[in-house]
Amino acid sequence: MGMKTIKAVIPAAGLGTRFLPATKAMPKEMLPVVDKPAIQYVVEEAVTAGIDDILVIIGRNKNAITDHFDSVPELEVKLQQKGDHGRLQRVTKSSDLADIHFLRQGEPKGLGHAVLRARTHVGDSSFAVLLGDDLIDERDPLLTEMIAAHERTGAAVIALMEVDPSAIHLYGAAAVEAGDDEGTVKVTGLVEKPATEDAPSNLAVIGRYVLPPSVFEILERTEPGKGGEIQLTDALQELAADAEGPGVVGVIFRGRRYDTGDRADYIKAIVQLAVDRDDLGPELRPWLKDFAERL
Fold first, then answer.
1. Which tens digit of pLDDT belongs to each residue from 91-111?
2. How far apart are CA 279 and CA 128, in angstroms?
3. Which pLDDT score is estimated for 43?
């Protein structure tokens, strides 16, 4: 199935309106999470899973993303001259991570449209899609498990996570049944952001997918859905309904996920990641305890 040449697609063309005015001139994907922009965590996750060819779908005013993954010779020379090898290594890491390409979406017509824009680059191979709002802890190899599930089954693979039923309207929701493959469930239906009473389960689709190239043909004919956008969920629903195909399977994730798409959750993500770091945790943990006691 060509897993040795699997590529990753990272849609990053959104406007980031929930973080205005911070995102008026800065892409939301470049907002710092501790000391790295959010998108670098996502690229590093793909690289850890063995992917070295990454396509980032960008929109207008996203030049900061392309700049971040370029080398900066003048900065690197200055750090080298100062003997600041620690910072030099952190600066060069982002430009040495992978073979990173950029493609303009043009008009933001939804996640399905962004994925469809990747067709020429991806070709006839399976590929991963990673959304930048969801950061997966590097200690939890979700994407590796999803790629392995795709290799075994040939199905489209989506990441699912149990959420409080009152929050399911914020996500795509999956109807599932026991799967034939160990460690996965069979997805029988998908609903994009359903009302709580209409949700088929509390299993939310989070931002990781491993997809067969056949999804492009479906997206080509998918009409705009909820919000007037081309929804990837609608294409996955068609794959799930195809009785003759491998269908869609879900990997239920029970690890550490950090949501950076909401302002409060973004702050929580920074705190959670910072307290686990050897260089920041020893100072932050006692301060947080003292701060909490004073609330």
1. 888 888 889 999 988 777 889
2. 32
3. 96
User: For residue 196, what are the CA distances in angstroms to 122, 253, 254, 263?
Assistant: 36, 21, 22, 23
Contact 109, 15 (CB under 8 A): no
Contact 88, 72 (CB under 8 A): no
Q: Which residues, including other chains, have CB under 8 Å from residue 41's CB and lie 6 or more apart?
A: 33, 135
């699912």: which residue's tokens?
Answer: 160
**Domains assigned to the chain:** 3-261 (3.90.550.10), 262-295 (no CATH)
Residue pLDDT, tens place only, 16-38 = 888 999 988 888 999 999 999 99
Task: Name, in order, each residue with C-beta under 8 angstroms of 251's C-beta and a sequence gap of 6 or more.
Answer: 142, 145, 146, 149, 157, 158, 159, 160, 183, 184
**Type of residue found at 274:** A
Position 3 pLDDT exceeds 60: no
Q: Which of 157, 213, 158 is nearest to 1 (CA)?
A: 213
d(CA 210, CA 199): 23
